[in-house]
Amino acid sequence: xxxxxxxxxTPGTALIIGGVCYGSWxxxxxxxxxxxxxxxxxxxxxxxxxxxxxxxxxIQYEGNYDAK
Length: 68
Description:
The chain is built from two helices and no strands. By secondary structure, it is an all-alpha fold. The termini are far apart.
C-alpha cells in the first residue's frame, strides 16, 4: 500500500476531521442507543414498567416526578 502525500490534508487537519467525526458519533450514540437497543427490548418484553425507565436522565423518585 502506497502512502500518498496530499498538500491539502495535513496530519493536524486529519486529526481534527477524525475528532469531529468521532465526537458526532459519540453524541449520537448517547442520545439514541438506549431508545433502540435490543437489550432494552428484552427488558421491556420481560417487564412493562421498564418503559418508564430513561437511562442517562435525572434520577426519578417520589419528590421530583413533576419537577421541571
